[in-house]
Every structure is written in C-alpha cells, then in structure tokens.
Amino acid sequence: DSMFGGRGAPVLVLNQNTKREHGKKVQQGNVTAAKTIADVIRTCLGPRSMLKMLMDPMGGIVMTNDGNAILREIIVEHPAAKSMIEIARTQDEEVGDGTTSVIILAGEILSKASQYLEGEMHPTVIIGAYR
Q: What is the pTM assigned to this prediction?
C-alpha cells in the first residue's frame, strides 16, 4: 500500500534531470534505437560478413562476426535497444542459433512499421496487421 502512496496512484521516483516524453517523438526514437542495433549486427551476416573488433574485459582485442557475442558486449541504455538485445538472448536460449537473423528481421519489421506511424496509424493497428 505504501508503494502506491496510500491513494492507489503509483509514486514515480525519477532523477531531477529526467524528461518524460510521449507521442510520435518516442515512437520514432524507439524505432531508431532498435534499427541502430540491427544496423550494427547486419554486417555480420552472410558470405561477405565483416569482423567486428571488440575489447574484452582484460583489455585484449577480439575479432568476431558472431552477432550474439557482439550483442553480449554492447552496453545500451535505451529501452528499445535493450529489448532488441533481449530478443537475441531469448533466440539463443530457445534455439541456440539465429540471433543475428532475428535482430535484422526485427529491425526490418520496425523499419516498415515506421512509415505507418508517420502516416498517423495507431500502433495497435500496426501490431494487429503483423499478427
């Protein structure tokens, strides 16, 4: 009961510098963050895949084109980008393969959905169409 301030309304504890955003700006920001993760991983797929240089915790350099390994090392703050990384983690746990593909697919789905968001279509309508 104390969590809800005794009145049934949740109490939000935020940093003073926290800005709350809403609407189209947030939707486009979410799509952009997710597409950025997909773009980082996209070049790791296929016969012309490129190696990425990562620094391991000991300061050594590791070269890899394993999308899952790269995603494990990426540190992100944006909630949508974190969701993309969680998609890859779930894919790896459930199937053991396809992490790069699932990230690229999710990025493309969001990319196509963004044109409908710009056209004032409600997100639930877009989601319903994908189902």
A: 0.73
